[in-house]
Write a structure and sequence with these properties.
The protein is α+β, with helices and mostly antiparallel strands. Helix content is about 35%, strand content about 25%. It has helices spanning about 10-25, 50-65, 95-110, 110-115, 115-120, 170-190, 220-230, 235-240, and strands at about 35-40, 70-75, 85-95, 130-140, 160-165, 195-205, 210-215, 250-260. A hairpin with a 5-residue loop joins strand 6 and strand 7. This is NIPSNAP family containing protein.
């Protein structure tokens, strides 16, 4: 598989060290990154090929021209617990205003407009999808930047998992974020769970919540990693801390495969 041209994301080793340091002490006033998690629901009459063509040939190259990326594009695996017929797009931004300026730049980008002409030119009777929903996340202290580990894109057997943890109220949601920052992520790493991004929702259909994406060498590695996490002695201590009791009221889990043109 050909590696996309953008090379500005960080290597795993450096970022793992950054994560462990940030989990212990952080004085950041603003997030290092923000994420749009865009869900394209194809529906019964959606055109998956048209959506792929638009993302691969129009949107992602245009975002690269804006120095935005890496952009991840995923679909639920056939044996996933989740609905098929959806496409997940992950877009990282370095600041909140970049999300708005990016949209304006697309409108002025002649290469984008040409590449997206067939997709954007459809009328109301032939839409390429049923609907799009998005959530906007802010990066968390313990994982402040997107990480795509070396060798990930070359591994055709890799598997991803996107999880959303919803809380019953804002206090409990903030406590779950605190729990991640207090030590949950180092347990991930020790168990073989490799995060790509972790973010707390600023805007979205399910709030308060946090969402994170992880990657594994294959399905067997994913199952082994989560078994190791549940059995990890540090997790047993952290999960029994009464301060964090009842912080998660709902978990949405999406087991995903990457599109061939995905940059994550």
């Amino acid at each position: 598989m050909k590696t996309p041209p953008m090379k500005r994301w960080m290597t795993f080793g450096w970022t793992a060290a950054l994560c462990l340091t940030a989990c212990l002490q952080s004085d950041m006033s603003f997030a290092d990154e923000y994420y749009e998690v865009r869900t394209i629901v194809l529906g019964d009459k959606g055109d998956a090929a048209a959506v792929d063509q638009y993302l691969e040939k129009a949107l992602i190259p245009a975002l690269e021209r804006q120095n935005i990326g890496p952009v991840g594009v995923f679909a639920p695996k056939a044996n996933s617990e989740t609905k098929e017929g959806s496409v997940f797009v992950i877009i990282p931004f370095t600041e909140l205003g970049q999300m708005e300026s990016s949209r304006a730049a697309l409108a002025e980008d002649s290469e984008y407009q040409k590449a997206a002409a067939d997709y954007l030119g459809r009328d109301a009777k032939s839409p390429p999808y049923s609907r799009i929903s998005s959530e906007l996340l802010t990066a968390m202290d313990c994982w402040p930047k997107t990480v795509v580990p070396d060798g990930t894109l070359e591994n055709d057997e890799r598997v991803y998992e996107l999880r959303l943890y919803e809380s019953a109220n804002e206090r409990l949601g903030d406590l779950k974020v605190e729990m991640f920052n207090a030590g949950e992520v180092p347990i991930f790493l020790d168990s073989g769970i490799q995060p790509i991004f972790i973010g707390q929702a600023l805007v979205g259909p399910q709030m308060p919540s946090l969402t994170y994406l992880t990657v594994y060498k294959n399905e067997a590695a994913r199952e082994k990693a989560w078994d190791a996490f549940r059995a990890h002695p540090d997790w047993k201590v952290l999960s029994k801390n009464p301060r964090y009791g009842g912080t998660v009221s709902r978990i949405d889990k999406f087991v995903l495969s990457a599109k061939p043109y995905s940059q994550m």
